[in-house]
Amino acid sequence: MINLYVSRKALSYTFPIFFCMKALVVICDGMGDRPIEELGKKTPLEVARTPNMDELAARGINGTMHPIGPGIRAGSDTSHLAILGYDPFKVYTGRGPFEAAGLGIELKPGDIAFRCNFATIDENMVVTDRRAGRIKDTTELAKIINTLTLPGVEIIFKSLSYRGALVLRGRGLSYKVSDSDPHYPNKKVEKVKPLDNSKEAKRTAQLVNEFTEKVQEALSGKKANMLLLRGCGAAVKLQSITEKYGISGSCMATTAIIKGIAKSVGMNIINADLNYLKRSSRALKELEKVDFLLMNIKEADEAGHDHNPRKKVEIIEKIDEAIGVFLDFSQENYVAVLADHTTPCSFGDHTGDPVPITICGPEVRTDEVDKFSERANSKGGLGWIVGTNFMPILLNFMNKSEKFGA
Amino acid sequence: MINLYVSRKALSYTFPIFFCMKALVVICDGMGDRPIEELGKKTPLEVARTPNMDELAARGINGTMHPIGPGIRAGSDTSHLAILGYDPFKVYTGRGPFEAAGLGIELKPGDIAFRCNFATIDENMVVTDRRAGRIKDTTELAKIINTLTLPGVEIIFKSLSYRGALVLRGRGLSYKVSDSDPHYPNKKVEKVKPLDNSKEAKRTAQLVNEFTEKVQEALSGKKANMLLLRGCGAAVKLQSITEKYGISGSCMATTAIIKGIAKSVGMNIINADLNYLKRSSRALKELEKVDFLLMNIKEADEAGHDHNPRKKVEIIEKIDEAIGVFLDFSQENYVAVLADHTTPCSFGDHTGDPVPITICGPEVRTDEVDKFSERANSKGGLGWIVGTNFMPILLNFMNKSEKFGA
User: Fold this and answer.
1) Measured between alpha carbons, how far is A130 from A117 in angstroms, rounded to an integer?
2) Domain stops at, among B234, B264, B289
């Protein structure tokens, strides 16, 4: 009998146009942790039963990633930008523009944007509820905000439940302004201040304070009677991943900010089902259409923010089940599993500790790591990389890189 | 009895002017590979019997090198520049100037240069043979090319067999122009196009197209009746290694491009014998005169380009024999063995996978690696470095570095 099996990789060499290696990148948000006393000085990932991630590690190449750089505390937004190959030090000035993009606003260079919360304040401008009772339908409120006017500036506002994004469009605006959001309840709404001495920052601060007054007037008497602004940033035109890498890509995510980042670099957005296994089958279906899928799984990060190591272990085990669906796919394509940053249950927020990363697929130089975890992966053949190294490494495996030189 | 033996290293501390540590850098072109099914999921270097490289690894310090950066696919030219300590992102715009230098043309800042092939075309400008039957003697053809004229531009051409380099010298030239070489047979000679909107690029493209017409006229009726141009780059004045590091150096290589790079940084060029062992004795002889010898061994790369893993194993074993000649030398001096990039037999071209590196010599912090290979070296004490880290590390061992600070 003749063995007619030809690997996809082999076909990709002969017919590169028809048989491109595909890649699935599973970013387990905030999954990295520190050793926890309560877990016997282990991390949730070390304690969790993760046979599928472990198999990928055993068949793959493993390492440690500093999302931004050694010791630097990454946000999910800056780390996703870095992982997608966009230097956050160059393209990121605040989360506002990415939140706005995630809510479907088309930004233009020169725009500035804020992340917003509908909130409840009392008669002294003191915030009594930062989320206005997690109000669900804000369609009418958004309409009101969009009727407001400012001199020489266009106002574009969108919301989804109590969350929203505000874009200011006009000449001479600066993102160098502070937040009106006091970040804690029982504090007064802050006056927005310029963060440098430019006349643009001073004018923008004035305009935003005027906007806040108009919001207070327009929403007076309602439960959601204020809009708190934070994370101002300047819109930047980013090259799409198709222009940059010659690949098509989609992003599956639950949070607006991750969707916004993916949209900003020209990726299709698909919603994540609540059921992890359904997410996985949807991901595989999407990968029939596109070369590259980024799948952000948010829940481990939330357990970290909630200081809940047991919950984090549970979630990691569920994520592992979902990853089991990809084992087959990883035989002929690339599956990367990593975290975007560390969210230790002890600290309850992101830290600058690095994260484990595994890339599994044809022809990788396997190593002796057979368990996926923060410490096991540090013995792997990928060594230590930073977030912006990830895409060049992945594209190299996919045979999608340009040669530099001859 | 008194032990009168004093090591060269000890003498170098006391009499640094007379007893300088020397260094031999053996760059095995394209030797890195990926695990290959046919070789039992091992790389050619893992399969090959390499007792001498293994001894250097056992007595040396080992690591992994990204020639340019993680995942970046290096050319041999850009990687050699990086290994010699010249950032290719700053000094490399195309291979042309280095090819020209390799053929003995003295370049000046402002010059642009192309790599050229003598070719055969038919009456419709379709290339029927990209190498004009690998024509050997092109002295007369080169003379004809050098009689051609262009307005305001000096033409300097040199060739060796069917290969050559063309330098254009004059004001306001730009390297941002495309190739006339269609890169494949049975295709028409391309019109050279400007690659940006500058008037310099437009004028250069015009001039080069005029040159191509003149070549066609001048070589009409000959077998080699066209000159195909590619890899245009701008000449850059590079500091010599003597100015930069205070060392004298030679380069043993077979290809014009590597010789050209070495010449561009002020190194002497010595030819490589066909016999590997003769190369080694020639190298040791040269090291009596100079501090530093770069020895490029081309053949493993060719086996990679030819998709021939068995051949690659054979070549690596021959290279190992040649390296055996240096074991003695490495007791009192430094011998580094590395690849300039990975050329997987599966892919048949350079990829961005990193390469193993070993530095053996006095006082290095030895590690537990006792086998030289892609995966064994990733457990070494040198960790992960990039190409431009290599010279500072080597010069430091040689006690040839300046202190930064007090």
Assistant:
1) 7
2) B234
A87 in B contact zone (CB under 8 Å): no
Query: A403-404 and B23-28: which strand pairing?
Result: unpaired
**In angstroms, rounded to a whole number, what is the distance separating the alpha carbons of residues B362 and B258?**
29
Q: Which amino acid is at B344?
A: P
B38 and B136 part of one domain = no
Q: Are B248 and B292 in contact (CB under 8 A)?
A: yes
Task: Kindly give, in sequence order, each residue whose CB lies less than 8 Å from that of residue B277, ignoring residues fewer than 6 positions away.
Answer: B321, B322, B325
- Picking from B234, B266, B301, the residue at the C-terminal end of a domain is B234
Would you give the distance in Å from CA B60 to the centre of its chain? 24
Q: A358 and A276 in one domain?
A: yes
How many domains does chain B contain in total? 2
B230 and B246 share one domain? no
Residues of chain A with pLDDT > 90, as a percent, come to 95
Contacts of A10 in chain B (CB under 8 A): 346
Chain B CA closest to residue A402? B73
Rg of chain B's alpha carbons, rounded to an integer? 23
Measure the CA–CA gap between B329 and A171, rounded to whole angstroms.
69
Structure token pair of residue B113: 């240069």
Residues of chain B positioned with their CB less than 8 A from the CB of A396: 71-73, 351-353
CB-nearest partner of B77 from A383, A402, A406: A406
Cβ-in-10-Å burial (0-12, 13-18, 19+) of A123 comes to exposed
Q: Which of A248, A264, A324 is nearest to A22 (CA)?
A: A248
In a shared domain, residues A100 and A140 = yes
Query: How far is it, in rounded angstroms, from Cα A199 to Cα A402?
Result: 44
Cβ atoms of B65 and B390 closer than 8 Å: yes
Q: Tell me if B291 is assigned to some domain.
A: yes
Nearest to A174 by CA among A152, A200, A154, A149: A200
Helix (H, G, I), strand (E, B) or coil at A63: strand
Q: Which of residues 210-229 of A touch B (CB under 8 A)?
A: none
pLDDT digits (tens, 9 = 90+) for A189-245: 999 999 999 999 999 999 999 999 999 999 999 999 999 999 999 999 999 999 999
**Based on the domain organization, do A165 and A267 belong to the same domain?**
no
Residue A406 lies inside a defined structural domain of this protein: no
- Which residue in A406, A95, A29 sits closest to A236, CA to CA? A95
pTM, to two decimals: 0.93
Token pair in block for residue B146: 């050098």
- Strand pairing of A112-121 and A226-234? antiparallel
**Structural domain of B202:** 96-234
Q: Is A14 on the interface with B (CB under 8 A)?
A: no
Same domain, A319 and A224: no
- Residue A203's SS3 state is helix
ipTM: 0.92
How far is C-alpha B383 from the geometric centre of its chain's CA atoms?
24
Q: Which residue has the tokens 């090291």?
A: B287
Shortest CA distance to B127 belongs to which of B63, B188, B212, B198? Answer: B188
Q: Strand, coil or helix: what is A403?
A: strand
Residue among B67, B184, B199 nearest B128 (CA): B184
The answer to whether position A405 is within a domain reads: no
> Tokens at residue B398, please?
């040689």
SS3 content of chain B, % helix, strand, coil (to 5): 35, 25, 45
CATH of the domain at A328: 3.40.720.10
If asked whether residues A228 and A242 sit together in one domain, one would say no
Q: Helix or strand or coil: residue A42?
A: strand
Q: What is the pLDDT of residues A374-390, one digit of tens each?
A: 999 999 999 999 999 99
What would the pLDDT profile of A82-110 be if each residue is shown by its tens digit?
Answer: 999 999 999 999 999 999 999 999 999 99
Q: Is residue A279 part of a domain?
A: yes
Looking at the fold, whether B253 and B388 belong to one and the same domain comes out as yes
Of B73, B231, B347, the CB nearest to A404: B73
How many angstroms from the chain centroid is the CA of residue B110? 23
